[in-house]
Amino acid sequence: MTALTDVSSHAIASARWRIGEIAFWVLVLACALLFPSRYLIMTDIVRLALFALSLDLILGYAGIVSLGHAAFFGVGAYAAGLMALHGIVNEPVIALLVAGLVAAVVGFLTSFLVIRGVDLTRLMVTLGIALLLEALAERFSNITGGTDGLQGIEMQPIFGLFAFDMFGKTGLFYSLIVLFILFLLARRVVHSPFGLSLRAIRNNPLRAAAIGIPVNRRLIAVYTLAAFYAGIAGALFTQTTALASLDVFAFERSADLMLVLVIGGTGYLYGGLIGAVVFKMLQELFQTITPQYWLFWIGLVLVVIVLVGRARIHRWVLFVPNLVIRQFAGRKAVVAVPESEAS
Length: 343
Known about the structure:
By secondary structure, the protein is mainly α. It has 17 helices and no strands.
């Protein structure tokens, strides 16, 4: 009984909102309000953050590695584009949910292949699924538009009130609200008994099965949920850019997603969000300095992160905030490095 109480207390304590989390979202909202000239790049960051969040659910919490997560992003993007192009679902929010559900169905059907292998097998299977869907999209060009993509997509105003504008203001706040709602859902999931069971499976699947956790069902469920999130991210891409092409299935999109999580870290939700911000800022900076060789500098940053260690970089970055907090809130109040990064 004491063990159950300890687990319950730990779960409740972990689910509490911390000052750093609130400050993060306040800062995000402040950036959206204070930099109107950067709406488009911020919308791109928000979409990438949601996409990274979807991968973190399976990689950081269930230990499922994937090199083909763009498959679900592409399914969501094309589903939203086709519904808008043919007037099947005119309301963007409803179309967003439908596109996410279509991606979730694809994720559920392919999850039975993914859970059968281990890391290397899963890498190959997920990559193969993405390549297969890209080939199918190119084969049925009469539906998808082929290499030209879907042409003439016109998005209706959100709830009939908020029209998408060329400056990206509506798209940014729309994407930001979707990200926050789905983040709250993901946060609730990972701090639930379901989320705790996923951590047990990630750490030791055999031991998890021995204590009665239905390993395969848990993995199928979280893989389907991650596909839903990725499909929503893809639908946001189509709705905010009025574009859907074969590029949404590209391997480079999945590879960039892995880089985002390498930069931000896995297993604490904010890793994908922070990694998306840093990755996009570095990309824009290096493309401005050396447009032809920006990938070299991104690679150099990744090497530095691996050699120095993410936890040590976090301590350096948080040194000044910790110093200020100690002065005003006492010596025990510090901005801690996430447990998954410190281990």
